[in-house]
Amino acid sequence: MKILKSDLSPANMISKYPMSIFWIFFGISSIFGSCTQDYTVRTEILKWKDGKKAAVSLTYDDGTLNQFRVALPIMEEFDMRGTFYINTGEIPGQKNEAKYLGRDPKIVIDATASIPTNLENYFERAGLIRFLDIPGAVSFHDRSGATYEQGRVEEAYRVLDEGYELARKLKTINLIPPQIIDGPMIGWDELRTYAARGHEFGVHTISHPRLAVLDEENLLFELEKCAEDIERELGKAHLFSAECPFGTENERVMEYALDLFPATRNRMPEPYLEEINRSGTFDVKKDYQKEYVQFQRGPLSRTDQDLMKSWIDDIITRNDVWLVLVFHGIEGIGWEAISEDRIRDYFTYIASKSEDVWVAPFREVTKYMRQRMASEVMLQVASNEIKIELKSDLDPYWYDQPLTLKTYFDMAWEKVKLVQGNEEKELEVQQDEGGQYVQYDYQPSKGSLILKSI
């Protein structure tokens, strides 16, 4: 038996070969007694689970009621699982309520009478105003934050000056938690049942602020305390991914968020991933020169249904696209709510493409891509068995996603059995233009896998 270690890891191959090539070739000699026999075995980690042509993640923001009462049951009818980025501040039983951390509000408000908003005081004022007991407090924060992120800084300052003028006029110094969710929120017990059924839950802050205009203390409080409630109630597994509100890609916010969580939907700075955000344009015929393309789209209440279906049609004409759908309101509850009829029609259409499309939560697709790109294939080959092991430097706590492998071999095997851990099953020997092969899932947590001739 000869042991081989390939230096053609997926990460190395990206720089050595065109993106379309992802084969790992082995010329193997095994010596038994005085007889030498050469075998050729090549193993590919397929780009998507089960060899599908594309991946789709159904994600939801805010955690509003009908995401769970309407959309989730329809998904489960088609055996689909989704990702829900939840604001924890209004969930019954939450431990961490939204709060302002900083100086005495009266001192801040009084200073606005003589000192206009500027770069030195902007973050403090932007963070405080959403807690003031004045009409439109959250709107002042949101409008100012939006213009700030768009680079219209002077306008952002003016919006806050307008809000604080109202606060002084009303002599307001009382603080109240901002209310940002339409309708009632479901409780942790119900969320746990959905988590147990395979849905992902992720951090979306306590109270949905514009993180880009918060100072460090308040920014981290919103992210860390939301994560603390989720971990306590649902478990650490649901701290894999986060979505910072309003789809922000602010550099400062991303630096904090990517330090706290393995992944964010806002941004994934992988060198092999082309990111197209919700306002970007995807050209189905373009060669993006990267191994994967993440294509985000946010269906709204007025989004054309045929356009939504065309996103599915387009991605299955290629083999490198991950469509990330971002939903908000469902059936009358939440921002830009989409009707139940439209959601059912759309999910039915996606399910009709199940032969080509892998539908999975955001974390599962992220794990699959990262594991594939980081894994090195180790083979030991004999005349009657092939031992396969994948090695990577990724944290095994997080990176436990099964990977689909395809192994070609030129031995005259008619039947093949897979053995990994306590699992044993017979695999179908198949044939295509590349030769004879078997396709199977490799479970990273179960160690090496053996293919045996039987």
From TrEMBL:
Residues 50-102, 188-258 form the NodB homology domain. Pfam families: Polysacc_deac_1. Keywords: Signal. InterPro entries: Glyco_hydro/deAcase_b/a-brl, NODB_dom, Polysacch_Deacetylase. This is Polysaccharide deacetylase family protein. It comes from Fontibacter flavus.
